[in-house]
Specification:
12 helices, 0% strand, mainly alpha, UreH-like_TM_dom
């Protein structure tokens, strides 16, 4: 898959993951709203504050992608890992889709792995409330980005399939931008939207689509591997043919 395809996959996963975001982040987004002064909780002022909160969240996602890219880029140079990492990303997306649809809850256990860090950050979160200026809001949003979430973990597995830290960061940014519409609506108390996203049919549809993206990721990995193998075989055939021609030419010259 091209780099653009990876970015579109991450963006779409974020958009489809809105049903999960409402459940995971809806309460926190609402808490940020109530942490604002009363005169800032309406209209464009509330929207502006929510944009600052979410900018902090997207900044954390981007930094996580960058760090993962720096730490894990060398893994891409290890032969078997070139296939294992994309396959892991595809499988993780399939599991995430099944989790969102309510068909398979294994990722709930993985989400709990981040619980200790989230609890350790509780004193810092409390120190930022009430929110008095945009710096507080940005810092609170950056902490929000560390909330244990299977959807974020799925995006991270997608990000580390890129062999370049900048591309890993861009994948995570694209994913964050995909989640933005839902969380802005949640933060501004769009009750009807929340109810729509939480309907079982909506969650199942979104989960199924993410499963399809996971399958597409797996298929792309296999096709890329097949083309690479074919290219290598073609290269070897060309080298063999050149060697044979050289041998024949040398033999004719000798005679």
């Amino acid at each position: 898959m091209t780099d653009l395809a990876w970015l579109l996959t991450a963006l779409t996963m974020g958009l489809l993951g809105g049903t999960h975001c409402v459940g995971m982040c809806g309460g926190l987004s609402g808490a940020f709203t109530f942490a604002l002064p009363a005169d800032q909780r309406q209209g464009w002022r509330l929207l502006a504050w929510q944009l600052v909160f979410n900018s902090g969240r997207l900044l954390t996602y981007t930094l996580l992608g960058l760090v993962a890219g720096v730490l894990l880029a060398d893994l891409q140079n290890l032969g078997p890992m070139k296939k294992i990492i994309p396959i892991t990303a595809g499988v993780f997306m399939i599991l995430m889709g099944a989790y969102m649809a309510g068909w398979f809850a294994a990722l709930a256990q993985i989400e709990r792995l981040g619980g200790p860090l989230w609890r350790a950050l509780a004193p810092l979160r409390q120190r930022l409330f009430p929110v008095r200026h945009p710096g507080h809001a940005l810092a609170a949003g950056m902490i929000w980005g560390l909330l244990p979430c299977g959807l974020v973990y799925s995006a991270m597995t997608l990000a580390i399939t890129r062999a370049d830290p900048a591309q890993s960061a861009l994948v995570m940014l694209a994913f964050g931008l995909g989640t933005l519409p839902t969380l802005l609506l949640t933060g501004t108390a769009a009750g009807q939207i929340k109810r729509l996203l939480q309907r079982p049919a909506t969650r199942k549809t979104a989960g199924l689509l993410i499963i399809l993206f996971g399958l597409w990721t797996l298929l792309g990995t296999q096709l890329h591997g097949g083309h690479q193998h074919a290219g290598q075989s073609s290269g070897k055939s060309a080298e063999h043919e050149a060697a044979m021609n050289h041998a024949e030419h040398g033999s004719a010259h000798h005679h």
